[in-house]
Amino acid sequence: MGTVVLVHGIGNLVRGASPEQAAELKAAAAADRLRKGLSAAGLSHVPLPGLVMAYYAHQLTDDYRPERQSAGRGVLEDLTSAQEGEAWEWLETAGVARPREGQAGMLSPLRWAVDRLVEQRAGDAQPAARKRLAELLSRLVVATLQDTDAYTSRPARREAVRATVAQAVREHGARVVVAHSLGSVVAYETLHAHPDVDIDLLLTLGSPLGLPAIMRKLEPEPVDGRGARPPGVRHWVNIADVGDLLAVPRELGGAFPVDVHATTDIGLFDPHTLGGYLAAGLTAAALAPHCAD
User: Which InterPro entries match (predicted)?
Assistant: First the structure.
């Protein structure tokens, strides 16, 4: 039975646990969700692969002490001016223009823009549901920008995170890497930085790789707006939920040599989580051919 290495995304710090414990907890939760995905795809007979979480959340902090970690407020007002500019790039890429003078009313311009984006994507939902989605999207935007900065801001930290992922693949002889959210950025860079890591499938889920603010920070940096394929990747599949507002622009903006792009629907209130993607039949079907290797 094959082994699959998972690379998690934003907001995955497990407080009160060692990195090893956190990795085991995350892998066990992922296994439960993938089992549901295989069932949804009519593939219950396919054996569940061994899942290993390349856990790196603790490496994004300056002083890792499990009992001291905080999830943070996750509000738009926490963004730095540079991050606020990146948030505007993100929202404009998703189709929301900056408000005209006085258009935002009592709201901050960013919060107004988030509300407009939710209206565009879920206009038929009840007001309470739209408010909940706006709060969720705000937290996702903040967490993504802050965690991306935490990963890219220090070369030694960045190298250590990539080494963690590469070690997980080598140690378990994995032929498949499933990378979610910010994890797709980490996996992409890892596979370039460690060209000896050879895999059959790179499966990216809810990836923000095509966002301008992220593309500018990539190593290696895209050339003429195009990212290079990691040398050891034989096949690359990218899956995005139709309502995943972190996975914009669609199909990674056409900027990366992906073999197959696909969309799924993991639910209005669960448009981005790794568990939601793994429980989707489309994700399970993409993994199934590699589960019995």
Answer: AB_hydrolase_fold
| Rounded-to-integer distance, Cα 49 and Cα 10, Å | 24
Q: In the block, which residue shows the tokens 């790039």?
A: 89
Domain holding 254, by residue range, is: 3-64+152-291
Q: In what order do the strands lie in the sheet with 260-264?
A: 50-54, 3-7, 176-180, 199-205, 233-241, 260-264
d(CA 135, CA 139): 6
Dihedral angle of Cα 185, 154, 214, 91, to the nearest 10 degrees: 120
Residue 99: per-residue pLDDT: 86
Q: Based on the structure, what is the number of domains in the chain?
A: 2
| Contact predicate 164/171, CB 8 Å | no
Residues of the chain with pLDDT under 70: 1, 62-74, 106, 123, 268-271, 292-293
Helix (H) or strand (E) holding 114: helix 109-122
Do 48 and 92 fall into the same domain? no
Q: For residues 59 and 118, state if they share a domain.
A: no
CA atoms within 13 A on the CB side of 76: 20
Residue with tokens 């902090």: 61
Cα distance from N-terminal residue to C-terminal residue, the chain? 5
Pick from 185, 190, 150, 200: nearest CA to 168: 190
Q: What is the pLDDT of residue 244?
A: 86
Do residues 223 and 114 both lie within one domain?
A: no
pLDDT tens string 200-211: 999 999 999 999
Q: Does 181 share its domain with 284?
A: yes
Based on the fold, state whether residues 123 and 213 are members of the same structural domain: no
Q: Cα–Cα distances in Å, from 86 out to 60, 211, 289?
A: 20, 9, 38
